[in-house]
Amino acid sequence: MQKKLEVYFSFRRRINAYRYIEWLLEWDQATIAPKASAKYRSEQIEVLSEELHKITSDPKYIKVVDELYENLETIEDTDLKREIKIAYRKSQVVKKVPKKEYIHYQVILAQSTAIWAEAKEKDDFSIFAPILDEIVQYNRKFVKYLQTEELKGYSVLLDIYEEGATVQKYDEFFDTIKEELIPFVAQVTKKNKFKFNKKLTKNVYPRHEQKQFSKYLTEVFGYDLSRGYLGESLHPFTSGVISDDVRITTEYEENNFTANIFSTIHEMGHAIYDQQHDPKYNGTLLQGGSSYGIHESQSRMYENMIGRSFSFWQLHYPKLMELFPKQLKGIDVVEFYKFINQAKRSLRRTDADELTYSLHILVRYEIEKMLFEGSLKVRDIPKKWRQLMQMYVGKRPLKDADGALQDIHWANGLFGYFPTYALGSAYAAQIYHAMNEEINVDSAIENNNIRLINAWLKENIHQYGNSKTPEELILNATKEPFNVHYYIDYLKRKFGD
Amino acid sequence: MQKKLEVYFSFRRRINAYRYIEWLLEWDQATIAPKASAKYRSEQIEVLSEELHKITSDPKYIKVVDELYENLETIEDTDLKREIKIAYRKSQVVKKVPKKEYIHYQVILAQSTAIWAEAKEKDDFSIFAPILDEIVQYNRKFVKYLQTEELKGYSVLLDIYEEGATVQKYDEFFDTIKEELIPFVAQVTKKNKFKFNKKLTKNVYPRHEQKQFSKYLTEVFGYDLSRGYLGESLHPFTSGVISDDVRITTEYEENNFTANIFSTIHEMGHAIYDQQHDPKYNGTLLQGGSSYGIHESQSRMYENMIGRSFSFWQLHYPKLMELFPKQLKGIDVVEFYKFINQAKRSLRRTDADELTYSLHILVRYEIEKMLFEGSLKVRDIPKKWRQLMQMYVGKRPLKDADGALQDIHWANGLFGYFPTYALGSAYAAQIYHAMNEEINVDSAIENNNIRLINAWLKENIHQYGNSKTPEELILNATKEPFNVHYYIDYLKRKFGD
Question: How many CB atoms lie within 10 A of CB A68?
């Protein structure tokens, strides 16, 4: 076994180097790389992917992972045990999906985002439909290759992004959301007639001062810039492959300054999670967070539960007024608080508030499920989309650009991924509840002591990196299995006011 | 031959990808990478260097390059011919230097900059001496491995950075400089008693406005940001491996605002050169510029001849005053022009002005020459340094931190590199003279039409990338061989006033 592990480690050492540069190339491309460099860059990425694929598809590598997996019981170290399980999971794709199909799929994906962008630009789903259909077909094939006795159909995809997730579990989750939230949203949005000071949306908030405020936020939240970086990109994101280098980006829109604030806080939620795992996981498959859902739970907790709380703004609104004295003149903290917590029906997921967000995800979940059950054809997606939006969100898009074409995810081949966004919010509520049993979260926020919250999360979630499954983590941190009612209760309490 | 070329191209394709990520890793490290990531990063770089070395030392690669080189006369395309020559030159190092020694040398280099930094910090040359001695020993060995009938000793190193350069040629060059400049500097610095307004050095010039001015400069000079990027780093530099992605950095010191201005212009000189070569050279060994000297000629021409000219500031000083109205109040363009063109004896190369700069290089050249002739021992460098500084620059450092320890270059193993800095300035003067015969450079500057200068340089220098040797390029652009007297004349004219 020792010899086999050494073989495994020497492969892992090489794989890590390629993952590292893959990460850096992506970071660079999304932040500062000049557009004109795209072609040459993609040619280099192609070579490097080939080199990496040579390693991960090396029969010696596949064999050693298989053998270690078959002898898992002889490995005592639980971390190493889990790592081998994950390596095995990953190697299944290389092993079971024919190389030719896999490569052709990559070629399709490389073309699809440009086609999607064109379709969205022209508001014409028929431009996107043929390539989307190919992507779905490929995913259907992959499902067939990868499915097991326990895991079939769409569940195969769900499980990739959220280990342990199945259609059955998600159905249960979304059923509760449907039952509880749809009528509640109707109630809340009916009452909501507050007229906000137009300065909030019409004034210009210069980049320079917005930058100063995001810098200020990094200090308030304890996002460690000696092991991170705050950059800028079109779509904010967090990225890193070791806890000592976790970078985030934000966006600066001069007439939508809260976009910067909440993007920064959201991404810091992801980043603090990744910065706080045990450093021993760096260079292993247990680096980073547990699942997409758990990761999203952290970003949403920081963004919504902390960052949109009244306690938070009571303390920090004066700083914002100091930076924007003219723009915010006459707007008090109560109005600002209400402004950043408006609940209203919107067409776009990215415009959705905390209350209605999961209903947008529900639409996507049901469409994906139908696609993989075979009860929906790609060309019929727009119609279904409009119908479900009307039913769940209560608003019907007139244009597909505001409907089925709004998100890039499917063009990237991401099926089974959207549901983790909703699940993350629900995890967040349960974790927040458990944290509140042990520390006074509101008082920590009021006393500018978010580090106390970070410490609790480190102790109960972050330190573990990917060494536990989502289920284990939730149980460990909250002392009970996942329960969607914390989420429902949280939303009803907050938006019931 | 066709088959051999195909083999060569397929190797080149892979090598390019590794060079690309090497470039990106260096860029990232020098600009935004958090310090804490250094260890993990260097481990990944180690793996990637191994992977690249596997390719460049592959006997199949060495063999195909040898065979192509031996059959050069059968290749008709002159660009391809030159590329094979360059590939052959490069492969000599891998072929002739024993792998063990090469790798050990890399390990030493990886440690040496930290040791150098400590020595400089503590002003103690004896800390740096042992590892510097090892570096010199290795370079002496490499010289032995690489020398040929025509090229021996220190000339082997000179030729690496400036193709065609030899001790004999540099001796001639520096002899003229000694003869002509040393007495001239004595004359100029004696007269120089102008007292500048203290605001120029004592006022605070905020980063934000400095950034706006560098942005303004990119437009004035026509540095194409759609194929570049203006970043920030401790030591400004230019970097890129294709003409569509040539990035520069600058520095912002709040009480030394001209550092930003002239760094930005200097690096744009490098960058515009790299942006303007024929795009067909991307992905080949003819990409980028011809030699270090030619490259430096461009950066110094933009920085000194254009950027420090009176015509330039007559036009752009109002913009500077607009950004710094309080700081520059009462300082007119004549005073500012004199301020940025002061000639004075300084201890540090990086503080040196246009007039005395080459004398600083002369000190380094003579020391390197003695080291490789064997007439100087590493431990005796500081003494020799003080002596030569007194003789040539007329100023003697009291501390080695201001003397032999000031530059990082030797810690990086760069011997034979410094002289290109002086040669570059001399090339610049000759090229500038030739350009002036064909276009009215001053009027282009006065009319905010630096694009005309860019166009001339593109036509006569830049477009060729590395497809011509420095000698060919100078002859092509100026219609005569290199002549140091243009440089002497230029300096005497400018500083004679």
Answer: 23
